[in-house]
Each structure stands twice: as structure tokens, then as C-alpha cells.
Known about the structure:
- The chain is an alpha/beta fold and 607 residues long.
- It has 20 helices and 10 strands.
- It folds into 2 domains: 16-349, ABC transporter type 1, transmembrane domain (ABC transporter transmembrane region fold, Up-down Bundle); 367-606, P-loop containing nucleotide triphosphate hydrolases (Rossmann fold, 3-Layer(aba) Sandwich), CATH 3.40.50.300.
- It is 61% helix and 9% strand.
- Helix 4 runs antiparallel to helix 6, helix 7 (187-234) packs antiparallel against helix 9 and helix 15 packs across helix 17.
Amino acid sequence: MFKPKNKKKEKVKLTKESIHKAKKIFTYLKPYQGMFIIGWIFLVLSSSAGLFFPYLLGQLLGGTTTESAGFSGNSSWVEQLDLTNINIVAGLLVVLFFLQSLFSYFRIILFTKVTENTLRDIRNDAFQKLIYMPMDFFNRNKVGALTSRLSADITIIQDTLRTTIAEFFRQVIIIVGSIIFITIVSWRLALIMLATVPVMAIIAVLFGRFIRKLSKKAQDAAADSNTIIEENLMGITNVKTFTNEQFVFSKYKKTIDTIRQLNITSGNWRGLFVSFIILCLFGAIVFIIWQGLHMTIGPNPTLERGDFFAFVMFTVFMGASFGSLPDLYATIQKAIGATEHLMDLLEEKTELQTHQGKDQSTIQGNVTFKSLIFHYPQRKDMTVINDISFSAKSGEKIALVGSSGAGKSTIASLLQGFYTPTKGSIEIDDKNMRDIELNHLRRHMALVPQEVLLFGGSIKENIAFGRPDATEEEIIAAAKQANALQFIESFPEGMDTEVGDRGIQLSGGQKQRIAIARAILKNPTILILDEATSALDSESERLVQEALETLMEGRTSFIIAHRLSTIRKADKILVLENGRIIEEGTHEELAEKENGVYANLSSLQNT
């Protein structure tokens, strides 16, 4: 099951399960495996070519003009170099650099292409998964944390596939090649070197685990801070209305301080670790040089100067490679965790996988609720809908009335297939809703909510969201039926007017009429109106109500309402309380019922 990382419970370590899940990323690499393999060939070639550099450089520095030349008191070893040797070695180095640069170029562009193609496919699949996830998934996961986490995970994988893996294995090749060479040159010096490197490697692993844990905590805290930003900017009106700017800022500041402290702590330990590695490495190098010089310039030298200088260069290269391995390994470990996280998401079952219905026959709009019982998956101890049964014939208007929490919006969610009934069933045209193909069902439904969410873009784009393939004439006709065309044409840019973030440039009534135009354009068989006029002023309500009357004509309509004046013409009114239907009838029947709940509500609103 996909869950955002819990910073208090998460244990940063590699397990067989995490590695097994991370391996699934190779299914995304498979289409590009030819290019990837060629990239690895160039990686091996460039890394192997790099091993010749310290050897040739050592020969260049150690070359002499005579076979047995040593250091004289009157001249330096530089003056004793064989110039012919210098030219040959220098030429070989130029050829080596050319080949290595060529191999590296092809390795980088191939790995980049494979990485970007792979991440494109992962991004597409991840977003497709998200938009097809059941509503319960979004109840369990905060959208801000979800998007932030996915973004961070994909960035980590991107860096790892593009550079980190290649760099890690390049360092491994350098280390292995260097060990082979120094062992051949002098097993005695090699033992001295190898006695220090494994110790540092063990310390590096221990330090790396601790530092990764701190880094992961900082990453989770950063995700929390992004959630605070997103939630409060989306609800900026509430923040300002309740004058809670300072409260919100304090909450954010506390999270940022936590991130700062975690990163500083991580930096302190990382600095200590790097300092320790540098001290040990350079100490070992100095000791090896001291020991090697005795083997080279003593009365009975046992080591050629060229081989000694090559040994020193290999030692430096190997030490640098060992020093870089912990960070590279830590990054790869993060990438394995990020890949596991993404694979969890990609393995999560979508609505289309859990809803197995295949029927795509024409929907007439007859709806029947049969002994329906429902509780939300995360609140199994609280029954929201308790044994409800009612029916709506095609074209009827059914009103749902009741206090907050009575179950009205839950009925609308169940009707749209957002959740599965715990017991009982919903039938559409005498077929169990579970047997109808989900997208086919929703294509015949439309929702006009109380809080209309408009997407960034133009008014035309927002209306066309109801049917993206609609013509401009159809969009204009829908706007006219929704009583929206007049105010749209009053804008200088008309239909091309930008609505702003979430429609902030428009009034509540204008947004409602665009939502109605969107629903009209969709031409649904079943319509759900979720308190569509409750937040409007009288004039806006009148215009919206007229548009709604047009929209409901000939459609099976479910109207959730607080204002009873908007449902007087309903064919049937259901009064809900604690998830049960306690009254049922027309407005006239219920208004005349003595001591009835609806009658009391009607009396209070009339007063």
C-alpha cells in the first residue's frame, strides 16, 4: 500500500524487499536497454582508459636519460629525463585524453537520453495512476505532501540514473584497477595501503547510515513545509479573515527551523567525516611516499622510479575514489528508497482496477438505492449511511435535506462511484452500478458543487472541460443557457478571459454559472447539485436558479439543499438524519406534516 514516508517511523536501510521493488524500475528501462548497454560499454571504456593516466604520468615523471640513472647531488631528477621518452609519453597522454573525452561524451549523452525517456514514462504512469486513484486514497494522503514527495523522488532517481550510478562504478573500476597495479608493482607497499583503506570504508558505511538518516528527516520536514505553504495559500482567504497570518507563519517558521537544524547537524557530521577521511588518506599517502622513496633511492633500489611515481599516482586516485564512494553509495541508497516509493504508487490499485464493471449500454437515468449501508474505509466504527432505500425515475428531481453530517454528500459520492457501499447496492436502470463500466457511468453524470473549482486558463477552456471536443458554437450555447454569456461578453477578452488561480478573478455567482455551463455542455443523464446556490446573494441566486432549472430539464437530478425555497418543485424530498431517511414526500406533503422535521425547517426559514 502506498503511503507517504512517516518521518517518525521510517527506518533508512536497504532490505531485500526494498531492493526487489527498486528492481522494477528496469521494466521502464527495458525499452531503452540497447542504448543503456552501449552507454555502459562507453562507461567501462572511459574508466579503463582513465587507469592508464596515473601509469603514464608516473612513467613521465620517472623517466631518465640513462638506464640506471639515479639522483645526483648536482642536478635534479627533472634535468635527467630522457626527452624522447617525454615526447612519446606526452603523445600517448594526448591520445588517452582524446579517447577518454570521446568515450565520456557518448556515455553522458546516452545515459541522459535513457534517463529522460525513462523518467518521462514514470511521470506519465505516476500521474495517470494518481488521477485514477479512488477517493479513499486522497483521504489517506495529503495532496501537498504527495506532490512534493513525488517530485523529490523523481529528482533523486534522475540524478542517480544520469550520473551517480556511472560515477559509482567508475570509482569502483579505478579502485580495482589500482589495487591490481600496486600489488604487481610492490606487494609490500600495497599491503600498507590496503591496511588503511578497508578501515576507512567500514567507518564510511557507519557514518553514511547516520548521515542519511538525518538527511531523510530533513527531506520529510521539507515536504511538511511545502504542505503548509500549499494549504495556507489555497486557503488564504480564511487565513486573512481570521487574521491568522502570524499563527500560520509561526507554524511554518517552526518547520523551517527544524529543517535548518537537521541540515546543520547533518553538515557537522558530514564535515567531521570528510575531515577524518582526508586526514587518514593524506597521512597514508605521506607514509607510503616515505617508504617508497627508501625503496627507490637506497643503496640497493628495489623499485624503478617510474613505477614508484605511478604507484603514488594510483594511490592518490584510489584514495580519492574511496573518499567519494560513501556519498555516491548514500545517493544510490536514497534512489533505491525513492524508486521503492514510486513503485508502491505504481502498484496501487486504481478505480478502474477495483471497479470491474464492463456494461456500456445506454443509461436512461433510473436510480435505485437498495438497503444501502456505508462507512468510510478509514472510519469503520462510524456508519454514515444506515439502511437507506429509495428510487428515482428517469427525469425526476430528488431533493436531499438534512443537517450537516446527515449523509447527503455521501449519497452523492456513492452515486458517482467514489466509494463502494459496505452493504446493499445502487442500481442504474435495474443494473447493479458495480456492473457498469465506471467511465461510461460518469460520462452520463455531472456535478455542480457548492465550492466551484475552476482550472487556470480561460473561461472557454473551463466550460469546455465538460466536453473537450465541443465546438465554439456549442460552448457559447451552453454559456447562454447557463445565464453566463452576458457577463462573459462584458469582459474585454470575452471567452478568452483568464479566470486566475482557482477562478479567483470571478465572483461566486459567475463561477457557479460557468460550472453550470460546463454541466450543460456535458449533457448528462444524471445530475447532482450539491448546495449550488447556498453561498450566493439574492440576484446571483436567481440567475443561477434559472440556469439550474434549464439544466435539470429532462434529467434525473439529485439536489442537496439547505435553502428549502430552491426545492419546492422537487418530485420527491428525502429528509435525512444520522444516515437514515426519516421523512419522504413532496414539499406540500412534508410542509403539512404536524411536528415534522421538514415542516419545522420550512417554518424557520420562512420566518
